[in-house]
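Tutorial handout. Part one gives the primary structure; part two gives the three-dimensional structure as C-alpha cells.
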Amino acid sequence: MSMSHNRSIQRAACIAAFAACLLTNAALAHARSSEQESGKTYTLLATPKTVAWGHYDATTPPVLRIRSGDTVVFHTVLTNSPAGLEKAGVAPKDVEQDLRDIFNGVPARNRGPGGHILTGPVYIEGAEPGDTLEVRLRKIDLAIPYAYNAFRYGLGFQTDDFPYSRVKIIPLDLATRTAHFGPGIDIPLHPFFGSMGVAPPPGFGRYDSAPPTIIGGNMDNKELVQGSSVFYPVFVPGALFQIGDGHAGQGNGEVDITAMETSLVGSVQFILHKGMKTGPYPRAETPTHFISMGFDDNLTVAAHKAVAGMIDFLVEHKHMSRDDAYMLISVDGDIDITELVDHNKGVHVMLPKAIFKQKE
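Part two.
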C-alpha cells in the first residue's frame, strides 16, 4: 500500500471524525435549545404572600424566580369579596378559601389603588430593559363553576342609564363549556385573563391595575385565549410579570365594566428574547391572527396607536414597506374596540395569519 494511499485514508478518517464532531455539537446545541424551550414547571398558588392587590410596581418583591423556557402554573382568584359573593347568592361553601385567606391576610397598606387581585410578580432571570418577554398561554382552565357580572353607578359606558348597582351570578357548565346566562341563553366559554402585564418603569410608582398601558396590564382582550402568545417590552430587571382578572368570556367593549368574572388556572411559559424590541405597546399572536394594541383615554388616539403598532410589526417582521403595510391593514385588517371602560380605552388590530403564504 502506497504512502499516498495511507494519507488519503487518514484524511478520510479525519473528515469523518470532524463531521461526527459537528453532528455531535449540533445535537448538543439542539438539546440545549430544547431544554430551554421546555424548561422547568412551577406552581404558584394565590395566597396573601403571592398576590399584588390592585397595582403593578417596579419595587414589588418577586414571589418566584424562573428562567427563560420555564413554565408557571398560575392559580388566580376573581376580583370580589367573599361577603359580596355571598350577598349575590353564592353559597358560603362555594366561596374559595384562597379568596377568604387573601381578604383576611393582605393588609390595607398593600392594597390599591386598583382592585384587581393579581398573582405574582414573577422574576425572569436575565430580562433587562430593551428585551422582549414572550408569554405563551399554554393552557387556561376554569377553577370554579360560576362567574359574576356586575355594574354600579359611576362606572361602565352607560352609567347614566343605570343609576344603581346590580350583581348577577352566572353558572358555568364545565362539561358543555357554556355559561347559563338566563332562561334560553347559553354562552360558549372562552376563558382568558383580563389582566396580564409586566412592571412599569420605576417613575410610574405604584401603577393602578385598572388602566391598560405600555406594560399591558388590564387589557381585557378576549382574543388572548389558550394557544396565544403576548409579547411585552421589558422595563425593569426581571420584567416582574403578574396575572389575574380571570374571565370565562367577554364581549368587545366590556360595556358595563365587568365580563364573566371568575377564577382561572393558567399554564404560562416564558421565553426571553434578548435585544428584541417590542412596543411601545404589547403585541400578540393567536393561532389565527397577529394582533397589535393601543391604549389611551381618547378612543381615536388609541386606534392610531394600534394601527401604528401593526404597521411597525409588518415592516420589522414581514419586511414590508410602510406603504404596503398601511394598505394591507386597510384591505384585510380588523380594527376592534377592546374595551371602553378602564379609564384608558383599548383598540386592537387583527390581521389573519393565513394571508401570509410564505413561511419565514
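Part three, for discussion. Confidence is low (pLDDT under 50) at residues 1-35. Residues 192 and 224 are 6 Å apart (CA to CA).
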